[in-house]
């Protein structure tokens, strides 16, 4: 078994050029990525509807749930444009109500479904800006080393005069070389236990320290209410999750978003427990959710490529 060494300095990047990172390529190919997501989601949903009336009922259900979300469970992160969009969807659904020919109704309802899926996908999609990432590489170690030095009674001047680095304060150990090698062979999925609200930036910092390419990850849309935080999250690979939305099109699209990102090689971060571990212990019951998309992505890789050339997906747990 590989010796678990303590990291004392940032390791050399596994892939030196950021422009070669999967997350960057995914962001650059955003239009093709979103088109694939919408088309696949639309196709899978249409197969689940028996007839035109079933699809029409589903669209009405989505509209009803979205109206309730905006009126009964509003968040600051909700865009003012949402009411306009759903108002237009309501108008289109009312028009299709009047169509008696089932084929024509089904055709119009498919267009409405595509509009909804496109709206969802553009809201969810993550971006990745190398310039922002390089700035974060410099700022995060400084902030964490100072925050970890904070305690009641310490003066602000002392916090900023501390000579201890992040490597003195972070205990980063494990089979680092093995994980780095896995990222060269295939796609790495990190599935840590969720302890606190700063888990994502903490793990992101560690990922950078051990030299792995940046990873995409889901962030609650409620976190996008703070201007500065919202812009940074949006530009560092975080895709938006709205846990209030339980409708079938949204959940199916979210699943396909993750699956396609992984098949395109994007290293990813999931919290399989679904929420924070209050006890601090590793969860005994995991929610497959987005983690299940890693299994689907591996299945697709094996179906679409010969076994010896299919990209492998590796799940790394703490």
Question: Features of this protein?
Answer:
single chain; 318 residues; alpha/beta; 13 helices; 5 strands
Structural summary, described in words:
- The chain has 318 residues and is of the alpha/beta class.
- It folds into two domains: 18-28 and 127-317, no CATH class; 30-124, no CATH class.
- 55% of the residues lie in helices and 7% in strands.
- The protein contains 13 helices and five strands.
- It has helices at 22-28, 30-47, 52-72, 81-97, 102-124, 130-147, 156-161, 166-169, 176-185, 199-209, 227-235, 248-263, 291-304; strands at residues 186-191, 216-220, 238-241, 268-269, 312-317.
- The chain has a five-stranded parallel β-sheet, sandwiched between helices.
- Strand 2, helix 11 (227-235) and strand 3 form a beta-alpha-beta unit.
- Helix 3 (52-72) packs parallel to helix 5 (102-124).
- The protein is globular and about 70 Å long.
Calculate Rg over CA atoms. Answer: 22 Å
Large-scale geometry: globular
Number of strands: 5
Task: Give the terminus-to-terminus CA distance.
Answer: 16 Å
> How are the strands ordered across the major sheet?
3-2-4-1-5
Order of helices and strands: HHHHHHHHHEHEHEHEHE
- Global mean pLDDT: 86
Helical fraction: 40-55%
């Amino acid at each position: 078994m590989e010796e678990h060494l303590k990291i004392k300095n940032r390791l050399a990047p596994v892939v030196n050029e950021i422009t070669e990172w999967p997350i960057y390529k995914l962001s650059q190919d955003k239009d093709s990525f979103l088109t694939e997501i919408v088309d696949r989601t639309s196709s899978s949903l249409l197969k689940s509807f028996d007839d035109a009336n079933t699809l029409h009922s589903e669209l009405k259900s989505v509209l009803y749930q979205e109206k309730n979300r905006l009126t009964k469970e509003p968040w600051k992160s909700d865009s003012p444009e949402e009411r306009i969009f759903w108002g237009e969807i309501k108008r289109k659904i009312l028009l299709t109500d009047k169509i008696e020919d089932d084929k024509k109704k089904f055709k119009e309802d498919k267009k409405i479904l595509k509009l909804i899926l496109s709206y969802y996908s553009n809201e969810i999609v993550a971006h990745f800006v190398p310039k922002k990432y390089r700035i974060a590489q410099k700022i995060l170690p400084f902030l964490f080393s100072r925050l970890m030095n904070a305690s009641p009674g310490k003066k602000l001047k002392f916090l900023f005069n501390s000579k201890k680095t992040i490597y003195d304060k972070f205990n980063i150990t494990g089979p680092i070389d093995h994980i780095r090698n896995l990222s060269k062979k295939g796609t790495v999925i990190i599935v840590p236990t969720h302890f606190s609200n700063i888990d994502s930036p903490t793990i992101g910092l560690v990922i950078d320290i051990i030299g792995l390419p940046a990873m995409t990850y889901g962030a609650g849309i409620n976190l996008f209410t703070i201007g500065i935080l919202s812009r940074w999250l949006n530009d560092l690979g975080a895709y938006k999750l709205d846990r209030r939305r339980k409708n079938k099109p949204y959940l199916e699209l979210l699943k396909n978003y993750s699956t396609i990102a992984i098949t395109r090689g994007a290293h990813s971060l999931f919290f399989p427990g679904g929420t924070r571990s209050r006890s601090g212990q590793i969860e005994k019951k995991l929610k497959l959710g987005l983690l299940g998309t890693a299994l689907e992505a591996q299945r697709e890789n094996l179906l679409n490529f010969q076994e010896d050339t299919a990209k492998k997906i590796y799940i790394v747990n703490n």
